[in-house]
Design a protein that fits this description.
With 508 residues, the protein is an all-alpha fold. The protein has a single domain, classed as Sodium/glucose cotransporter (Up-down Bundle), CATH 1.20.1730. Helix content is 75%, strand content 1%. It has a two-stranded antiparallel sheet. Helix 6 crosses helix 22 and helix 8 crosses helix 9. The longest helix is centred in the middle third of the chain and has 48 residues. The protein is globular and about 70 Å long.
């Protein structure tokens, strides 16, 4: 590895650990400070933290790789995600910020559900906490795998060493600094990702000899992919937005946006911002970041494909196109900064997921079933222990390199989106919704996603998931279950209705 690259990465790691030390001194004296930053984040930090924890390595590796492989026909995923994030800011962010404070100052999503519906028996809290812990542990392991492969392919380390280096740095700043450290590091990481996603496609474009449309519209796809020639996608026009895509395929791609309403590691950022009054500022910053970053990722894949075609340089792993361009186009010192952007994307999501899992283990299990009278310091200690335990289990899962981690990520996104998304929306907008409806919606949403993925059913030789993304039926059936069961059972108490109306009055 070049000395300049090593220097850039060393600076990056030092900055991340320094932020963790700063946050440790600022906000870890009580569980609210550790888990939610004391509800005092600035709109810029909260916005970039939400974006960075959302996108992970998918933004710098997955999306450019998909564009490299399929061309503009995969841009619908990016469009769906941007629209979903925009809707999340408008529909969920302000109401959730107010409601979680009104609902007995809830600091986790399961805590909010329990307080919102007076779940005195903790049924809803336990179900939602189990969903979070199981899916996020698997989700976290996918980020650990990405870090291991990055260190193996780019830095010459063993895969196993990469797992421990990636996880070790994240655990250190999350362990000591808590939510504030995660949010501040996300802010820095989001800035690094933003600059990198603009710089790489811009410089690549200046190196092209022919117009991109001409190069990719008449390309030999087999040459571009350096792959077997038995795939139908090789004959597609890369500049055709609708190439090989039916209406259902486009709906499936855009349906990724539905997942935003139910992602705990994203919507918890809405709960942490200092005031609902700064939500418009947070939304403008967050959506500007996401829109430009998504465009940069799309152009990285397209311009990278055009450059590789012009120079007869096919690559074996399409998801490394960002890495390849960084090494080809930039000085080693700058290339190190760009590699740090991928690490930033991976680490920002791992840290957020670790903290959400830790929050659920602490607040929704330990505090409820082990020590109800636990002190604030004890809860913070349990939270830190939980971070380490979840990280170790994620590393254990990541040792199996043959696991279909990317499929698990897709499934987890759909599971959260279908189980929590309708529940969050209805809980914020419909005062007639009750505990029974909430339980029904969560169970039906999660069960539908699992059935859609694993049921041994095929139509014309295709599995259900290959026909339409599982979040679509899961989200729809969850909404129906919430509505029908809530109307068929007892109305919520006057106290719950009064709290709902207080939230409405404050927002209006």
């Amino acid at each position: 590895m070049e000395l300049g690259t090593i220097i850039s990465l060393a600076i990056y790691f030092i900055v991340m650990l320094g932020i963790g030390l700063y946050a440790y001194k600022q906000s870890t004296d009580d569980v609210s400070g550790y888990m939610l930053g004391g509800r005092n984040l600035s709109p810029s930090v909260a916005a970039l933290s939400a974006g960075a924890s959302d996108m992970s390595g998918w933004l710098l590796m997955g999306l450019p790789g998909a564009m490299y492989l399929f061309g503009l026909s995969k841009v619908w995923i990016a469009i769906g995600l941007v629209l979903g994030a925009w809707a999340n800011y408008f529909l969920v962010a302000p109401r959730l910020r107010v409601y979680t404070e009104k609902a007995n100052d809830a600091i986790t999503i399961p805590d909010y559900f329990a307080n919102r519906f007076a779940d005195n028996k903790n049924i809803l809290r336990v179900i939602s906490a189990i969903v979070i812990i199981v899916f996020f542990t698997l989700y976290t392991s996918s980020g650990v795998v990405a870090g291991g492969k990055l260190f193996e392919n780019s830095f010459g380390m063993s895969y196993e060493t990469g797992l421990y280096v990636t996880t070790g740095v994240v655990v250190l700043y999350t362990l000591f600094g808590g939510f504030l450290a995660v949010s501040l590091t996300d802010f820095v990481q989001g800035c690094i990702m933003f600059v990198s996603l603009l710089a790489v496609p811009l410089v690549t474009y200046t190196m092209l000899d022919q117009p991109v449309f001409e190069t990719l519209g008449n390309a030999s796809y087999d040459l571009l992919l350096a792959a077997p020639k038995d795939s139908e996608v090789h004959s597609l026009n890369m500049m055709d937005w609708f190439a090989g895509g039916s209406t259902i395929a486009i709906i499936s791609a855009m349906a990724w946006g539905l997942g935003y309403f139910g992602q705990p590691h994203i919507i918890v950022r809405f709960m942490s911002v200092r005031s609902v009054k700064v939500m418009p500022t947070m939304r403008r910053i967050g959506m500007s970041w996401m829109t430009l970053s998504a465009i940069g990722a799309v152009l990285t894949g397209l311009f990278g494909a055009a450059y590789m075609l012009e120079n007869q340089m096919p690559i074996d792993d399409k998801e490394t196109i960002f890495l390849v361009l960084a090494e080809l186009m930039f000085h080693p010192l700058i290339a190190g900064f760009l590699l740090a952007a991928i690490l930033a994307a991976i680490m920002s999501t791992i840290s957020s997921q670790l903290l959400v899992c830790s929050s659920s283990l602490t607040e929704d299990f330990y505090r409820i079933y082990v020590r109800r009278e636990a002190s604030q310091k004890e809860l913070v200690l349990i939270g830190r222990i939980s971070v380490v335990l979840v990280a170790l289990f994620a590393i254990y899962l990541a040792y199996d390199r043959d696991s279909s981690i990317l499929d698990l990520v897709s499934n987890a996104w759909a599971g959260f989106g279908a189980a929590f998304g309708p529940l969050v929306l209805f809980s914020l907008y419909w005062k007639r919704m009750n505990l029974q409806g909430a339980i029904a919606g969560m169970v039906v949403g999660a069960a539908t996603v699992l059935f859609w993925i694993y049921a041994p059913i095929s139509i014309n030789g295709q599995s259900l998931s290959s026909l339409i993304y599982e979040i679509v039926p899961g989200f729809i059936l969850s909404c129906i279950a919430i509505f029908v069961v809530s109307l068929a059972t007892k109305e919520p108490s006057e106290e719950l209705v009064a709290t709902f109306e207080e939230v409405e009055a404050e927002l209006n």
